[in-house]
Amino acid sequence: MDxxxxxxxxxKFLKKAGITSQIEIEKVITDALNNGEIDKDAVCKVxxxxxIDLSDxxxxxxxxxxxxLMHSIDFTKxxxx
Length: 81
Description:
The structure is a single chain. This protein is of the alpha+beta class. The protein has one domain (about 5-80). The protein is built from 3 helices and 2 strands; from the N terminus they run H-E-E-H-H. The termini are far apart.
């Protein structure tokens, strides 16, 4: 196995997963703000489950505090549009 090719493949997957996750988090939070389900100071819990076909055990990655993310993005334009 070529380690460089393997690592590049993993990085491409993580980039895709990261970008897709960010888009989904922004969409869900923006929708919740627009629907009045949360306010701008809300704290959200987020998790990701990683499943590799060769393993029976999925890896659950949890992030308990999305407060920093919610305040680092200006949602006002998305909420008002």
